[in-house]
Amino acid sequence: MKKILVVYYSQSGQLTEIVQSVLAPLKKNENISVVFEEIRPQKHYPFPWSRHQFCDVFPEAFQETPCKLEPFGFNSEDEFDLIILAYTVWYLSPSIPVSAFLQSPEAQKVIRHRPVITLIGCRNMWLLAQEKVKRRIGAIGGEIKGNIVLMDRAMNLIGIVTIAAWMLTGKKDRFLRIFPRPGISDRDIQESGRFGNMILEALSGEKMDLDQQALNRHGAVTVIAAYIIFEQRIHKVFTIWSKFISQKGGPADPQRKIRVRLFFYYLLCAIILIAPLATLVSWIVKIFNRQKTKTAVAYFSQNQPKTRTE
Ligand SMILES: Cc1cc2nc3c(=O)[nH]c(=O)nc-3n(C[C@H](O)[C@H](O)[C@H](O)COP(=O)(O)O)c2cc1C
Known about the structure:
Oligomer: single chain
Mean pLDDT: 94
Number of domains: 1
Bound molecules: flavin mononucleotide
Distance between the termini: 41 Å
Order of helices and strands: EHEHHEEEHHEHEHHHHHHH
């Protein structure tokens, strides 16, 4: 009997649907037992978000500052054959509850010397979040054997508008009836069961053997070259903003209210003015730096972390 631990945190339930779809073939198999662990923060994160709350979580999400979690249901002494870590991205980082899990003593025990598969459900910017997760899992002594990413297929700017409307209203509807439905398509979620079949096959051997390239041939990871440069640029600006806001206090501190509001206006300007320009610049850089771009795409399509910090 093979044992799998699935750790996840979802607000709207979108990631939960993905987890259920991927795990469906494994749950049906009588030689596999699956333990689901839904991470529960002690202080609930709102959904839908108010504009202020959405921006106020930014510094801690970006800096991977953990929140307090309710005790886990799984036994961290158990030796699982595979850990599946399903997470969403908050500000180019794993969501705060997932960061908290990765920094918990229980994660250290349960992940050490174990194969891990990461399963991401996000809008479209996950590259640098996965770098942070790679580093954390590597530091604990786990080994990422596979990465599966499901994302919104809408164009970047359209995706920003539709996801903002969804996050701030809680309604996964077509914004103003002219925009596409936000988030990951139902079809992509339903079809993600194919990855479960591949995991099942990999688990049937003595040693968990999953090939990222094979996963990628089935669409597990698609790296959009322009987003590499885009994310790296945003990351630099976010570093400055997160320090600027945290100087005034921790989560929900009234002292940092003005700075959080300024950050909101920055985001607004960035979306309306900077994003289209940056997209254009990223495409141009991509054209002139073909070899560098190719190397970067290859790097983000696999699971080894960089040896030096970026
Ligand atoms: C505060 C916040 C920040 C987010 N930042 C990003 C991001 O940087 N990149 C991205 O692709 N998606 C981002 N998203 C979208 C989430 O990754 C995710 O797709 C969405 O919240 C739905 O997840 P759920 O299953 O928890 O409801 C963000 C969402 C929230 C709430």
